[in-house]
Amino acid sequence: FNSLLKIIPSTNYLKADSYNLSIIIERLNKDTLSQKFVVQNIIEFLKNNQEIELNANDKLYFFSESDIDFLSSHYAMNAFEKINGMQVCEELLDFSKMLNDPVLLNDFRLLYIRNYFKDMKNNLSTLSINKNDPTNKKSLISNSGENKLTMNSNKASEVNNCSDVPKIFQYQPKLLLAVYKNLKIIKGKVSNPGLYLFNDKENINSLLSFAGALSENFIISPNRQIISVQTKTLELSGSVKFPSVFEYLDGMMLSQILESSDYLLNETYPFFGAVIRKSKETNISRVIAFNPSLIMSKSEDLKLNASDKIILFNTNTLNNVLNFLQVNNYENKILSQKNFSDKTNNQEIKNNENIELQKQQKDILSTKKQRNKFLDPSVEDNKTLVLFNQDSGDVSKSLIKEDNSNIPNNSPDDKKIDSLNEINKEDLFTICKELGIETQKNLNLCIALLNELNQSVIDVKGKVKSPRKYFVGDYANINEIINFAGGFTNEADKSNIEVSNALPNLQNSNYVYPLGTIFVDITDNYRANIQLVGNFLDTRDLSYKPNLKLSNVLKSISQLRNNSYLYFATIQRINEAYGQSNLLPFSPIEVINGSQDKKLLPGDIIKIYTKGEIENLLSIFIKNVGYQTPALNFDDITNLPQLTGDLPELIRSLTIRVEGAVVKPNLILVASLLSIENIIEIVGGLNNEANPNEIEIVFPKRDGFNNFILDSNIVDFEDKNHKSQLIFPGSSIKVPKVDNDLSLGYVELKGAVYQPGKFQILEGDSIFNIIKRSGGLLEDAYLKGLVFSRVKEQKREKEAIKRLKGELEKAILAAIESQSSANKVSFSDINPLRELIVSANQFQPIGRVIGNFDTIESLKNTKVMSGDKIFIPSRPNSITVIGEVMSPGSILWNTSSSANQYIQKAAGFTELAETKKVFIIAPNGQATRKGGLWSYNNILPGSTIVVPRRIKLTSNLDAISAVTSVIYQLTVTLAGIDNLLND
Q1: Full-model pTM
Q2: Which of 60, 141, 260, 571 has a Cα-to-Cα distance from 453 of 20 to 30 A?
Q3: 765-797, pLDDT tens digit by residue?
Q4: CB-based contact 187:193 (threshold 8 Å)
């Protein structure tokens, strides 16, 4: 028999109680030479005599309805998990032992069966549909499914009566295992819910019809093991072990979903979760924050609605959100949106939302809850974020960003996305994606969630191991928060924890609420300690002892890290009389050498800075302060500056500038009087160009009216007495250079010369001298096309392109902002300008100096400088036509051809050509607009004819006179250098 039809030609061959949905075929696996069990659906075969092929030596198992019912019996359940007072039937003992194999204990196809039995035993009421894995401990099954399982006390007591075990399953552990791995659970609106053996690779509707489904609508789990027919659902997602969809029943509470921490991953954030709820009246989504730890401990609860989405978050994700809010300076602010909807309609939405709010407040079962924050009711109709540019049109993105091709042009949120101004949109999208929200469809929801998080921040300060800001979805126990922050530090005063909450009646309680603060004070014993912080090799606290000095603490340079700055450090000292702290400067190297010392007081904080920190401080000083108030008073004994203050004040008072021929000209920060020799050492010493005999020192002093005035003198660094001269802060040291022709640098010559290369510049050298030293010009050298570039011009050219691009962007934005409904700026108007801006972004300037270099006089008059580049091309025999012509490229030069004739040879203009603004770039780089002379034969070989693209300007753009000029200047520059207009 090679087909099932030959064995079972009709249903008359089957018994009346035959299970007519599927059979199992035991078949030899030819690859492994072992037996395998295959589920074969037969319902279509029985209806339509559909052919089912068989292999030689196949063994077919036909089941009865009672056989399948047995699979959910107390005997079968006991084989999985022993029931009190029952022993596993001998016929099922091998199967039960097999189930305890470690591999099968974690087999997801059996775990959902174990949970099914567990839920049946606990008489639970719903069944979860797991998105990734059916092992969710919260698996629930509807009461209507219990008709397949009878667990009354009489049967449970029949511990030795195993006669009900079907013969087909007796002593057949492998067959039973194959059956259970292929069982499906049907629940919901169905006549016969329960377990079914079925191969889900075929049409699932035949299974639902067989089970008596009362609706065509169903939900199937991703693993295709659980099918729910037309049920209301809840969704659990985010940082959970098993993201799931649950069947919703009236009165369900959040604690029924989050029963324990077993559902959470190790990295799940324990104090903030969110329920996303959509209003039936307005279809507006709102965010309801909750504290998962309170829900799981049953301290709080929340009544759920059908279609609620419960989200838990990863700790790293929320850390990134906090950083995002801090970087963009939006902490504790509301990220609102500008509303463009009709006021009447908007008010109606607000009224409906207020009704929904009142309903929602009844669902929250907390007497302690002090807040109930929801999304602004107008949020769904909002069009533009306040944190974006509110007045920009929907084409702004084309001007600023080029990498937006993945954003649909007609997205509902385009206006919010495209007009991003204050917050980088990539950062916003990244945060939304981390939060599990697709920005293109749910940007409003992401903003709402960020608002909720923004208003759920608490600040943990003081002596905890990780003092910073955290999120709480509701109130939180301060001890739990402190433990999450790493616990107390050794110096923490555990009996003195200050809690500051937003509401007056919640101050110094055992709970912290959103926007509250926890402060853990330091013990009195540790308050007196001396702290070593910053770039010490071993940062630590030292017990204070009377008469303790700085030299007792800082004894050797080996106590500091290699990148420590040795000439300035600080002692932070509290002035107990005023309750303020000041910084006392000192020099670590002077303390180590014994030249400085200072008595320490209880609570002093000694900080060593890195070289990088000092450089940053000095750069900020130069940028933001600029002026100095030099410290001129130093203690004669300790060599310490006699001043205190904050860091900016110390920098203003203790800086010395060193310029000229030294290795590292710089502004240095010193906290001691140093000799000029010491200062030169700090900046790396004199370089090879230095003239040590005429070093100028400009130094501050006070006049008779105590004003700062400057004086100067010249010192000889080779004179020992001069070397030891002490330099006060506020001084400026300038080391002059000796005359050195080597400093004139090099010029590079390439092209049609006998000896191209780099040439050392001699005093007074011109282009003529350099060409002469190269051996002269080759016979075909073309001086009319000489390219002379200079570094300074390259920088100027780059700035010019940047300025022109900026002017074009501003002009276009101005046109967009001034557009009216009758005169809108469309994307087609903007796109050519956008391409021009893209070309400008890619532009690499060469710094060409335009001029006529084809005469001896001009070559001799043009002096060269270090970094100059000269290129002399060979005489060309063509001209180039680029831009909007049909066939751009090079064309042989002909003395009798005009510009118009060259364009015709390039197949003429394209439809996009701006025929009235054609221009020519001569070999020397000079550009000329089209004029009457163009018809004459005055085109030099090596010239470039540029046909720009026609840019159609709306009246708004045309009214801005700068646009046309800017477009022309950009086009000339870009075409002349790199032919960037050539498509």
Answers
A1: 0.42
A2: 260
A3: 999 999 999 999 999 999 999 999 999 988 888
A4: yes
